[in-house]
Amino acid sequence: AGVIRPNRAARTHETYKMVIDRHLAGSPLATAKVDRLRPQDVQAYYGELLKRGVSADMVRRVHRVLHAALAQAVAWGYVSRNPATGLKLPRHQPREYRVLTAAETKKLIDAFHAADPKKQQARASLWAPAAVMVSTGMRPEELLALRWSDIDFKAGTVTVCRALEEIGRVRSLKETKTKGSRRTVPLHADTVAVLKEHRRRQNELRLSLSRHTPWEDNDLVFPDTTPTTLTDPSGELVKFPAGRLRSKKAMGRLFVREARALGFEDLRFYDLRHTHITHLLHAGVPVKDVSARVGHASAAMTLGRYAHLLPGSQERAVEALDGLLGEAAED
């Protein structure tokens, strides 16, 4: 903790702690003397994790944490060589994502919009976030960090400059991860209309709350509108007012549940971002423009993840071979 906490983001520290608690603390490696730990011991443990059904990506994460810890042991002179170096790791397995068609997107958004805010409050609360997400390609953590002051209704743009950070129950705002993530995104007229209606609904909700239900005014576009009382570790009740930062994790779970109830199996909230990017590429929007719109670090990153979706990419590849074998075939 003394090394990771001061030099890494809070989220990274939480991830390291999770990996240690879940996989490393109770492992044979934890009781082995560091100067007697061999590469084959570490490799064997990775193999054991895979046999137990731990995903390849989690094993790679375990390796990252263990390698960092052992590198520190080298730096402090406990060992001369990092026994987690040069090991064979399982291949990264990209997570499958689902892309909605235009008709499916309309069906989903319309169903959220039609939900009764009183009888189906949870479903209704997904309408505006889902509509803005699928029409801008923002990341969920960027979406939930938006303030009304970030939206220029006259120009029809939204400025993305911060992101939600969620560590346990503690939520806070931080600057976007990279320079490319900070951007101004032009909005479609339909998205502007959604935001205006959402603002009207939000103002009506604030007025309807009793004087005994405080609203924490953070100028958030998509706040948590449900006041909650929870018990902290010491056993005391803590009140969380409406208007506070909304949980990305909780909203993700809610989205999966409501989408499944509407017939959309295996659809995650993040898939709306993939849907946006995919439709732009299918429409022939230049990769560089798509990359800038969704905040990728570079166009190369966009290509690396979505090149197979570019319209006619395989056909153009075949056409580029015209004449390459012509003379040889004639000979």
Report on this model:
With 331 residues, this protein is mostly helical. 49% of the residues lie in helices and 9% in strands. Strand 1 (151-152) and strand 2 form a beta hairpin. The chain is built from 16 helices and seven strands. A three-stranded antiparallel beta sheet has the order 1-2-5.
Task: State the main characteristics.
three-stranded antiparallel sheet, globular, single chain, mainly alpha, 331 residues, 16 helices
Summarize the structure.
The protein is mostly helical. The chain is built from 16 helices and 7 strands. Strands 1-2-5 form a 3-stranded antiparallel β-sheet. Strands 3-4 form a two-stranded antiparallel ribbon.
Task: Outline the fold blueprint.
Blueprint: H1 4-7, H2 10-24, H3 28-31, H4 39-51, H5 56-75, H6 102-114, H7 121-124, H8 127-136, H9 140-143, E1 151-152, E2 157-160, E3 162-167, E4 170-175, E5 183-186, H10 189-208, E6 228-231, E7 237-240, H11 248-261, H12 271-282, H13 287-294, H14 299-306, H15 313-319, H16 326-330
Query: Rg, please?
Result: 24 Å
SSE pattern, N- to C-terminal = HHHHHHHHHEEEEEHEEHHHHHH
Q: Identify low-pLDDT runs.
A: none
Please, how many helices?
16
How much helical structure, as a percent, in the residues? 40-55%
Count of extended strands: 7
Tell me the major beta sheet.
3 strands, antiparallel
